Amino acid sequence: MTDDCPFCAIVSGDAPASVVYETDDTIAFADIAPVTEGHTLVIPTAHSSGLAGLDPGTGGQLFRVGQEIAAALRASDVPTEGINLFLADGEIAGQEGLHVHLHVIPRTGDDGVTLGFERSEPGRDRLDTIADAVAAEL
Ligand SMILES: [Zn+2]
């Protein structure tokens, strides 16, 4: 826990949250500024600022809980035609806040949400080079 982390304050009970679900190592709660109604955050209860410091088992739990929240959203009265799971690791990737969090964002056809990805066509040789560079670090 860090003193200036709002998510750690939620974990400790020092800050309010609309809690959806808790496990031993995770807690899920309603995003205070939702992209769409039902937007939920899943966080590890132990502070970690990024993926590099996150226990891999806990990372697996984040995804499992994200799946469960997604299923619950689809079963609920919250309008949900699809789901985006989103995790930003690092400020340049769009991470806001110092504590790792997985967004579970319910989607509908008229929600107005856009994902601003542009795709490229690098060709097989470049794909192989990149794949080899990543594989060499595993
Ligand atoms: Zn924290």
From TrEMBL:
Gene Ontology BP, a term: nucleotide metabolic process
Record motif Histidine triad motif, residues: 99-103
Residue span(s) of domain HIT: 6-114
Molecular function per GO: catalytic activity
Catalytic site: 101 (tele-amp-histidine intermediate)
Domain of life where this protein originates: Archaea
Name of the protein in question: HIT family protein
Native organism taxonomy: Archaea, Methanobacteriati, Methanobacteriota, Stenosarchaea group, Halobacteria
